[in-house]
């Protein structure tokens, strides 16, 4: 890798989508237009020959941590969140298949009637055969976020880059919606992000990324063509790397 920590070549990526990116702003449920826009961006990158795994959150339906604060047992709340990620994966899978992208939906929580179990070697073969792989169920365990699941799967699948898709164009010094003086930060090390508590990803996810030297690019997925620009290494979003 170059000294910037960016990969010299990007052949395999893990795209991390929040559940909220699949819903209308401030609403719960699914927005078919948003899903279709994301699917089309994935199609273009896939067509260019990049291998793609996708981890999807479930926050547009349920947030386990929030339910736990409301009184639900944390383990149960997180299991409910895992099921929500499966709904989102199936919705995105359907959108991709309808535009001609071959996919496989898999889950860390067994639900064999609707998707395959997560088996690392099988998923690697799917990627090598040109299939987009969707990963539901988080890590399969409570108390871990889907950010941690993304970092874990990125390490297991030996990806070149985690693309953390958001509705903003990178990481800022403060919330740009609340602070007009906030400035965009083009590059951070994992240590800087942790020390400044910028909450790009949770601490467990960062620890996995640091340990396995997996760079992260935070970018706005709703700008047409941004996913392809990210894979080409153009200067968009915020890079978070080891150095």
Would you summarize the structure shown here?
By secondary structure, this protein is of the alpha/beta class.
Can you put this structure into words, describing what you see?
The protein has 243 residues and is of the alpha/beta class. The protein has one domain: Acetylglutamate kinase-like (Carbamate kinase). Helices cover 37% and strands 19% of the residues. It has helices spanning 32-47, 64-69, 74-98, 120-128, 146-156, 190-195, 203-212, 226-231; strands at 12-17, 51-56, 103-107, 116-117, 132-136, 161-166, 171-172, 184-185, 187-189, 216-220, 238-241. It has a 9-stranded mixed β-sheet, sandwiched between helices. A two-stranded antiparallel sheet has the order 7-8. Strand 1, helix 1 (32-47) and strand 2 form a beta-alpha-beta unit. Helix 1 (32-47) packs across helix 3 and helix 5 runs parallel beside helix 7. The chain is globular. The model has no long low-confidence stretch (mean pLDDT 92).
- Biggest sheet features: 9 strands, mixed
Measured distance between first and last alpha carbons: 11 Å
Number of domain modules: 1
Specify the CATH class. Alpha Beta
The strands making up the biggest β-sheet line up spatially as: 4-3-5-2-1-6-10-11-9
The percentage of residues in β strands lies in 15-25%
| Quaternary structure annotation | single chain
Shape: globular
Mean pLDDT: 92
Radius of gyration: 17 Å
- Under CATH, the homologous superfamily reads Acetylglutamate kinase-like
In CATH, the topology is named Carbamate kinase
How many strand elements? 11
Count up the helices. Answer: 8
Label the CATH architecture: 3-Layer(aba) Sandwich
Share in helix: 25-40%
Return the string of H and E elements. Answer: EHEHHEEHEHEEEEHHEHE
- Indicate the low-confidence ranges by residue numbers: none
